[in-house]
Amino acid sequence: MFLAMSSLIQQNQSSRKPTFGMKGNTVLFFLCALFILQESRAAQAAGNNNGVYIVYMGAADSRNGSLRDDHVQLMNSVLKRKENTLVHTYKHGFSGFAATMSEEDARSIAQKPGVVSVFPDTLLELHTTRSWDFLKYQTAVEIDSQPKSDSEPSSPGSDTIIGILDTGIWPESESFSDKDMGPIPSRWKGECMEANDFSTSNCNRKLIGARFYNQSDITFSKLHTPRDTIGHGTHVASTAAGSTVASASYYGLAAGTAKSGSPSSRIAVYRVCSWNGCRGSSILAAFDDAIKDGVDVLSLSLGAPSVLEIGLESDPIAIGSFHAVDHGIIVVCSAGNDGPTSGSAVNVAPWILTVAASTIDRDFQSNVVLGENKVIKGEGINFSPLEKSAVYPLIYAKSAKKSGANEVEARNCDPDSMDGDLIKGKIVICNNDDGSGYSVRDKIDVVKAFGAIGIAVIDDTLNAVASTYGAFPATVISSKDAAEIFSYLNSTGKPVATILATVSMTKYKPAPAVAYFSSRGPSYYTRNLLKPDISAPGVDILAAWIANDTSEAPKGKEPPLFNVLSGTSMACPHVSGIAASVKARNPTWSPSAIRSAIMTSATQTNNLKAPITTDSGSVATPYDYGAGEVTTSEPLQPGLVYETSTIDYLNYLCYSGRSTSAIVGIVKTVPDGFACPKDSNSDYISNINYPSIAISKFTGKDNKNISRTVTNVAGDGESVYTVSVDAPGGVNVKVIPEKLQFTKNNEKLSYQVVFSSPSATQLKEDVFGSITWSNGKYKVRSPFVLSSKSSDG
Q1: Any bridge partners for residue 541, and if so which?
Q2: What pLDDT sits at residue 137?
Q3: Of the residues 150, 159, 166, 766, which is catalytic?
Q4: What pLDDT is recorded for position 133?
Q5: Does residue 144 or residue 273 have the better pLDDT?
Q6: Could you confirm whether 166 is annotated as catalytic?
């Protein structure tokens, strides 16, 4: 939730520190430009330059919960120094520890046998109802069997456990009621940790686990608790698996029944984030505990800033999720909120299901009414006390420029740029185009201080997402509509207007559209793997909130029990809930089978039956939304699935430049005879058995041959699937064979795809298409992308 959290997270930029990793016998140095861990309090007290480093040692001991001997020896050697302190130990899903140490110690430890990598403890960011109804109506295929509703207590979904790594939870919320739920699954091994404001009684048959992780740079005891003091984690958890709550709303807006993706699933929360972000060492500790606890799905609405382009050996989410998937847990992560910049998606490892954000068919409108009764559409959430008639003086901020001030700053309502006497008692029109970094809220503060009674901000990006402004009449309008306001201002000597209180509009079209903030592909790590994987609702999502947040309450109102937020943070739990439902329906499926079911059943059309677009109106591509918009029922019965095996993931590491010796210690069980191909290179990544296809260096001179294997999971035994191809102009796509004839359930069949260019000319831009297998009942679609650029280009 970058949008909702950006003002809360104060990023600390300390001196750059290297990452030390073992790649064969070579030490790798990854220089992190931002968000590297500050010196720990213990180190600061000692007056040295120590910081927290994570020592990653690969697979855990095969004995459950036992430390590897080399792990113990190495940890003891570090702790011999009095200034070094242990922060976390990892022993369940993988092996390693986090401790304060000097950079020199970190360099030395990186060379020790059994060490995969050593890297600084990075600070990651949070990526910050109607959405489920909208997804249901987007469903195109009717599932023929009639499984019990996932909302029924007796549904097998009640034994599915979703782990949420976030800011904690507000357990008293009605969204976490365990009414009518059955006993906690006997396989659950987690715990409900106690704190000053959290007891074991706060857990129940819905919220079955709650953990928190102390951070070395946080001294506030109130943060040492599973209780959510921010709201983000509560919102995310209720979106993924909250109980159904009738009559939910945000002060009457978005009124209706609050639903989740898997209402009968259990929730386990792992508080890894606080007001200043999410520590990598805590994230790894949560992964380690979650693997031991027995969760089925892990949901992470957080990640590194895209500017870091963090490597696999130093990415706590990539490391933790690798081992979670190796233990049968599907990991769903947000793609980030750094869009629409190309290559900004994060959490791009192939074992992660990466989620982009899209809009739903609900719009929060706060319109401007001019003196001629002309209505200008505005976007925002406010509880304006103004009259509905246009009776309030209206002024363009540029016209209130203070003597000697810069005109650009004045029209943007920047501080110290306007004459307050000209602003007082008026509605102010402000631009938002000078790149000053002042937010809409900053502009509100400026004009309020002068006594303004309302503000309309011109911004073609922000008017696609409704922000909350409380009781102050504030709205965001488009530049196109602003032209009408300027025309009116120039046509009258006494312009007047009003700003209407927000109303929520449903059945808004077109929807979905890819949100402007949603991070985009291609993957910064390799162009031979398509990311993001899928999109889901992430704009103006109503979900549970902490009950003591007076900052969100209009004057005279109690704090809200539900709140409206936007971000890929909100999209991620939608997919996590669907993944839990698929797992409940198909308990023996692997994480990759579940991912495949979700991706290959996605839709690419909106509620106008036209192609999904971006916020700017251009047709969306797989770089924007992956396979498309997630659906709710099709993933339960996808027909065929692409299973990505451990060998695929190990080969991915080989193709990414890791040696066999560096890889064998990472997984708990290395297949007999495994070795990296001698000619490993990043081009081969295209051939791991993924539900999408991405190819780099497509020059048109040579054919590109790609192979895939699908598994028949339809349950109807004999079945024949026929292929159809949607190919871009200038590219020939041939699938061999064109038919797949299955004779039994769970049978695997392979096919090849040959990409060629009839004119042997190089692509001027990346192009997209799809391959779809159908037996008349199921459609199994895989998007593809071809690029002439190199894999890391």
Answers
A1: 565
A2: 52
A3: 166
A4: 55
A5: 273
A6: yes
